[in-house]
Amino acid sequence: MLNAEKITCYCFNKDCAASIYNDTTCLSIQVPLEVALSRTLNCIECGAELLSPLLIEIKKDILNLIKDDQRHSVAIIDDDIIFHETVKIILKDNWLNASFYMNPEPVYNALYTNRNKHAEIPNIIFLDLDMPLMDGWEFLDLFNNLHRSLVKPVSIYIISNSVDPADQKRIKAYPFVKSFISKPLTRHFLGKINEEVSRNAAGLELKPASNW
Fold this sequence. Notes:
This protein has 212 residues and is α/β, with parallel strands linked by helices. The chain has helices at residues 33-38, 53-65, 81-91, 105-113, 136-146, 165-171, 187-201; strands spanning 6-11, 28-32, 50-51, 74-77, 98-101, 124-127, 155-160, 177-182. The two termini are 23 Å apart.
């Protein structure tokens, strides 16, 4: 269950009388965070999308993460279709090189088949742990035997609802896993990912995020 924290969304259309830019008539609405992430809310005056400053910052951080589309391709592995839609809504048409999967098996098969093809291997994988067919742990074990033969490094970020400290401790056994991120996505962790991707692009060694 996603966190029930509420956030305030505003109309950012400068031409709308209900916009945040017109303080006396500003239209705002408070909604649970999971609602704001999983559906588009529209201004009743002009029809523009209602956004919160938090969502705007999250979008900026993710766009910065994948700004070099040729170098930073992303695979999302999660059996939660709402999570897929959340990411798509946040990014709209800007996520230019992301692939979405409901289970890890086709990702592993593609990595194995294309292990010598630079362009076919994602730079980043967001991986859920709890999935019915092949779970995240099975994928990590398979990837552990494969990653050294890949033509380029792949960074894995665990995206999970789990709050079990044992899971976070177990994850540390996999050196290619860069961080354990609790759902929903937060600006703090996206910032950490962006720092590490930038470091990797500069040819420096990737290390686990400091929140560990």
